[in-house]
Amino acid sequence: MAKLEQLSELLISEISQFEKTVERLEKIQQEKIGIDSAAFEKLLLKHQEKLEKGLSDHSMDMKDLGAKLEEAKAYPIWALIVFVISIVLNGIFIYAAFY
Q1: Whole-angstrom distance, CA of residue 88 vs CA of residue 34
Q2: What Cα–Cα distance (Å) separates residue 91 from each residue in 18, 21, 29, 60?
Q3: Which pTM was predicted?
Q4: What is the rounded CA–CA span in Å between residue 32 and residue 26?
């Protein structure tokens, strides 16, 4: 008879545990926890638009820089070397002429 009493107590304990678990699950279902990704998608789209705007601004800046570099007057290195050598030689000749 003691075994039967122990088993019935264990069964009652398990049933009460089960009822508590069912109540918790019902509360969770009533809360209606939903996954709403609309806000995340909106934020992601805003970020993507900012990145695209930044990329287009960068592209425009690079085009402007390329145009300015093409318009810039740049002399070849050999011409600059010849110019510097001629100035140095003229300086030497002028110094030699006066002394």
Answers
A1: 83
A2: 106, 102, 96, 47
A3: 0.41
A4: 10
Radius of gyration of the CA atoms of the chain, in A: 43
Tokens of 11: 């069964």
Q: What is the 3-state secondary structure (H, E, C) of 6-74?
A: HHHHHHHHHHHHHHHHHHHHHHHHHHCCCCCCHHHHHHHHHHHHHHHHHHHHHHHHHHHHHHHHHHCCC
Cα–Cα distances in angstroms (integers) from residue 3 to residues 8, 10, 12, 16, in the given order: 9, 10, 14, 20
Torsion of CA 26, 27, 30, 31, to 10 degrees: -140
pLDDT in tens, the chain (99 residues): 678 788 888 888 999 999 999 999 888 888 776 677 888 899 999 999 999 999 999 999 999 999 888 888 777 889 889 999 999 999 999 988 887
